[in-house]
Design a protein that fits this description.
Glyas_Fos-R_dOase_dom, globular, VOC family protein, 8 strands, Extradiol_RC_dioxygenase, 4-stranded mixed β-sheet, 21% helix, VOC_core, alpha/beta
Length: 203
């Protein structure tokens, strides 16, 4: 049986240490549908558009996800969108998660309804999420934190919540573990008011 990996926010003893996420690139359908979803529904500015440097017959679209981190798509007008759920296999993308402001959570949920997109809403214990699908059936998670956690301390907070969860002998990290982790680390944060929702465990 494989050894349980250590959970820690400390840098591993490895030859390379990444400094963040620069961008993620996906194979999209066509330009019109991709812009209609990511810019006009999710509100991501289209910040760069140029030929795909590896395939000049397709176009490369760059969207700012909201904090300067970029998601890009290779699109071609000969490809039609297909909203059917994607089949997953090893190496495929299961879902993408984008942050939304907690005070706008209900507004975002209502906007999805108004735009005709179905969704599931779950309280995941340490965060709260809406799950929907884009124009090509890719699952999109719109997630908000229950507490305002500084970006540069996020890994440390989650690793501490993991330890507290293990000490508690429960299977999933819960809100109380996150709250205790913040207290242990001396981080004073605001708790956000979010609607009640099922946990979605096992779904």
């Amino acid at each position: 049986m494989a050894e349980t990996p250590e959970i820690t926010a400390d840098r591993p003893d490895s030859p390379i240490h990444t400094s963040g996420t620069d961008h993620i690139t996906l194979i999209g359908s066509n330009e019109e549908d991709t812009i209609a979803y990511y810019r006009d529904v999710l509100g991501m500015p289209l910040v760069l558009r140029q030929p795909n440097l590896d395939d000049p017959n397709s176009t490369h679209l760059f969207f700012d996800t909201g904090d300067g981190r970029i998601i890009t798509f290779f699109v071609n007008d000969d490809r039609q969108s297909n909203p059917a759920p994607l089949r997953h296999q090893i190496g495929s993308v299961h879902h993408l998660s984008f942050s939304i402001e907690p005070e706008r959570f209900v507004e975002v949920r209502e906007a999805l309804e108004a735009e005709g997109y179905g969704y599931n809403e779950f309280d995941r214990g340490i965060f709260h999420s809406l799950y929907t699908r884009d124009n090509n059936g890719l699952t999109i998670e719109l997630s908000t934190d229950k507490f305002s956690i500084p970006d540069d301390r996020r890994g440390e907070v989650l690793a501490t919540a993991q330890r507290l969860r293990e000490e508690d002998g429960v299977e999933f990290a819960e809100e109380r573990h996150l709250e205790a982790a913040l207290e242990e680390l001396g981080l004073e944060t605001e708790k956000h008011e979010l609607p009640d929702a099922p946990t979605g465990a096992g779904v």
